[in-house]
Amino acid sequence: MKKYILLMVLAVLAVSVEAGTNENAGTCVGQFLKIGVGARPCGMGEAFSAIADDVNAIYWNPAGLMQIAEKQGTFMHSEWLTDLRYEFLAYCQPMNKGVEAFSITYLRMGDMEGTDKDENLIGNFGAYDYAMSMAYALPIPDMDNIYAGITGKIIQQKIEKESARAIALDIGILYFDPEIQGLKFAAVLQNLGSKLKFVSESESLPITYKLGVAYERDKLTLAGDVIKPEDNHGRVSVGVEYLCTPNLALRLGYNSQNDLDKGWTLGAGYKFDSIQLDYGFIPHGKLDNTHRLSFTKRF
């Protein structure tokens, strides 16, 4: 099993180093589904599919929810590019045989001036995207050290009076190496579903394939993901987290998707008993710097 997953990682890595811009970049709708959630994962360059050990796993790899032993809730706020506001709310709880989770993702653009075909002002209008998700993770029967998870999503985008809806699935697998303690592998398929239809045109969602690896030992966590969206070239994400104290964590990451800057990300987190605060800094060159702040509660 380990050798098979390693071969998959190498295969996708070969795809991810292709140079140049894909002519299909951004042609799928629902691009907000690609925006990472959680200040902790984003501060680590979004290399999180094989870590996935907190409630943010509902987005990164639903199989990782099986690592959670208590109820958790999280809220993330992001001051994103220009006037965009990005919010994420999620909750998870262990069940008899698995773990279930729920989340809402919301992206809103500030009001804009609307004009008719003759450039006359016709009033302001707004636009927003949101996704409601429900996930379930469980061990795979008769297979040791491997978890599976699935997330169902209802997606809506609205621009002025026009709106479109779709449904989609995320499927994830998380494998623990039985020989090397702390070594994990992941495989994730995201946004497999129906098309979004605005007026008379239907367009596909941004289906994305991910393979990840993570290694945790003592105070240090290392992680790497290779990602291949259907509407763009592949990319690489790597991240590191170091526990300076049992309460304070520092993070560094690199995401090759961010060609507007040098790709580096920074983050930090601090625990207060059952409460954790996380911050992520993600620069986008001349466009702007973005910030993510997360509040997580364990029950």
Written description of the protein model:
It is built from three helices and 16 strands. The chain is mostly beta strands and 299 residues long. Strands 1-2-3-4-5-6-7-10-11-12-13-14-15-16 form a 14-stranded antiparallel barrel. Strands 8-9 form a two-stranded antiparallel sheet. The two termini are 35 Å apart.
Topology overview:
Blueprint: H1 2-16, H2 39-43, H3 57-60, E1 72-79, E2 85-94, E3 99-115, E4 121-139, E5 146-159, E6 162-176, E7 183-193, E8 196-198, E9 201-203, E10 208-217, E11 220-229, E12 235-243, E13 248-255, E14 264-272, E15 275-283, E16 289-298
Order of strands side by side in the largest beta sheet?
1-2-3-4-5-6-7-10-11-12-13-14-15-16
Mean pLDDT: 84
Which regions are unreliable across 5 or more consecutive residues at pLDDT < 50? Answer: 1-21
Specify the CATH homologous superfamily.
Outer membrane protein transport protein (OMPP1/FadL/TodX)
What CATH calls the topology is Porin
What would the keywords be for this entry?
8% helix; two-stranded antiparallel sheet; globular; 14-stranded antiparallel beta barrel; disordered N terminus; 299 residues; 55% strand
Compose a concise summary of this entry:
This protein is mainly beta and 299 residues long. 8% of the residues lie in helices and 55% in strands.
